[in-house]
Design brief:
- It is a single chain.
- The chain contains 6 helices and 2 strands; from the N terminus they run H-H-E-H-E-H-H-H.
- It is mainly alpha-helical and 174 residues long.
- A two-stranded parallel ribbon has the order 1-2.
- Helix 3 (76-93) links the parallel strand 1 (49-52) and strand 2.
- Helix 1 runs antiparallel to helix 3 (76-93) and helix 2 (21-43) packs parallel to helix 3 (76-93).
Length: 174
């Protein structure tokens, strides 16, 4: 949810972003994720936590070479790649934190089939039914591999921001 706001800002206001604004945003996001996970860990000490990358087909509003235009590291492609690297970096800092990489999950299917184009807007992509199934199967394989001693997974609780209830990962309260 928060990263979507950054993508919107980049896609609509890129030439007007402050120097290193994306880096500052990602540094803040890292702190918020660490804080949120620590709150979860107070109650559920060993619970595996899965975070996802951002499903987006790269469509830069300011041209394919926007990263070369002296925009202080604020280009869309740099933001996406640095966000993904941040998530992977956090898995090394935080025990039992895992990344569901959407691009890895749908790599054999391809984005053309995995993304519902009728809901795409260069800010956020919605998975198609088949894309959702592919990500769900990938998630299941990840859970089984991270806990091989578990013979059967009976339940997975997902926080789908603004789906089951209002709010995002970072917000507190109902």
């Amino acid at each position: 949810q928060k990263f979507r706001n950054l993508v919107y800002k980049i896609q609509n206001h890129l030439p007007h972003l402050e120097e290193n604004e994306v880096k500052k945003f990602l540094d803040n996001l890292e702190e918020e994720i660490i804080l949120t996970v620590s709150k979860i860990r107070k109650v559920y000490k060993f619970l595996p936590i899965y975070i996802t990358t951002y499903p987006l087909t790269y469509k830069p509003n300011f041209g394919l070479h926007e990263y070369k235009k002296g925009l202080f590291g604020n280009s869309l492609i740099e933001a996406i790649k640095n966000f993904e690297l941040l998530l992977y970096k956090l898995t090394k800092k935080i025990d039992n934190l895992h990344v569901i990489d959407i691009d890895v999950a749908i790599q054999y299917m391809g984005k053309d089939k995995a993304i519902d184009k009728s809901c795409s807007n260069a800010i956020y992509e919605h998975l198609s039914k088949d894309g959702g199934k592919e990500v769900a199967h990938h998630f299941l394989r990840m859970m089984i591999q991270s806990e091989p001693s578990i013979g059967k997974i009976k339940c997975a609780v997902l926080d789908l921001d603004n789906t089951l209830w209002t709010g995002t990962l970072i917000e507190d309260g109902p």
